[in-house]
Write a structure and sequence with these properties.
Layout: H1 2-20, H2 38-55, E1 56-61, E2 72-76, H3 83-89, E3 95-100, H4 109-114, E4 117-120, H5 127-138, E5 142-145, H6 163-171, E6 175-181, E7 192-198, H7 213-230, E8 251-253
Parallel strand pairs: 1-7, 2-5, 2-6, 3-4, 3-5
Antiparallel strand pairs: 1-8, 6-7
Helix pairs in contact: 5-6, 6-7
Length: 255
């Protein structure tokens, strides 16, 4: 009897051990953006544009500067959460972008991932996010980045992080500077005027054979300075001192 009980206990323990050692379901690699089906992506884009058509007056500048296909980087200032759907809505094809890591653990985390985002740890040099961006550009994707890292509470340009310069120099693809303003009022004031200005492509290169920290800082500065020049003076913030006002550009209204 005692042997039977011991045998039963051994069988139970073995079963429990086997259960604990059973292969776990592989975790999702959040740094590999979800490939949204094209028909669904276009449907979401159409819905976003329809909403902004009804509540705001969107004006586009220099849209002809956008290449017909990737790879290229779109670097935009960030004054409102509405910049996230507004900037890519008028870009040909699908895009991928960085989103703060916290977004993926929120109630809308599934939507953030569904729209082609991958996480970035704010406030630190997230090399994994930078590698993910480079990999997406190798796949000829269009990559959107907000170099300031967060929305500006003052609605003016803040100091950019060096990630933009690093990704641009390492990937060797063009950067399209984008200036957006008026988006802070897009869903607050009916009929608010929102302007999105797409600048000429910038191909950034290091001074020598190797990329240095100085090269990365200079590349980031060049792009941010160009964005500042495209913005009205009151939005230029950190980059106001050296910005000059460029010649007027033809504006297309989509409303």
């Amino acid at each position: 009897m005692k042997q039977d009980i011991n045998a039963a206990d051994s069988s139970t323990n073995a079963a429990a051990t086997a259960k604990n050692q059973s292969p776990k379901k592989p975790e999702k690699n959040l740094y590999e953006p979800y490939s949204t089906p094209r028909v669904l992506y276009e449907a979401i884009r159409f819905l976003a544009k329809a909403v902004f058509f009804l509540v705001a007056r969107v004006h586009l500048r220099g849209r002809y500067n956008l290449p017909k296909k990737g790879p290229y980087i779109i670097a935009s200032n960030h004054i409102s959460w509405t910049d996230v759907p507004l900037v890519p809505s008028y870009v040909p094809g699908k895009v991928v972008y960085m989103a703060k890591e916290e977004s993926f653990h929120s109630k809308v985390g599934w939507l953030v991932r569904f729209l082609g985002a991958f996480p970035v740890k704010r406030g630190e040099g997230d090399r994994q996010a930078i590698r993910a961006a480079q990999e997406q550009l190798k796949q000829k994707k269009v990559f959107i980045i907000f170099p300031e890292g967060t929305r500006s509470k003052t609605h003016t340009l803040g100091k950019a992080h060096a990630g933009l310069g690093m990704i641009a120099l390492r990937s060797g693809v063009p950067v399209i500077p984008v200036a957006i303003w008026g988006s802070e009022n897009a869903l607050k004031k009916f009929g608010a005027h929102v302007t999105i200005s797409y600048g000429e492509p910038m191909l950034l290169k290091p001074k020598g054979n190797k990329i240095t920290r100085e090269d990365i800082a200079d590349a980031t500065e060049q792009v941010m300075q160009r964005i500042a020049e495209m913005l009205p003076e009151r939005y230029r913030g950190e980059y106001a001192d050296n910005a000059t006002t460029p010649p007027s550009i033809d504006t297309t209204s989509v409303n």
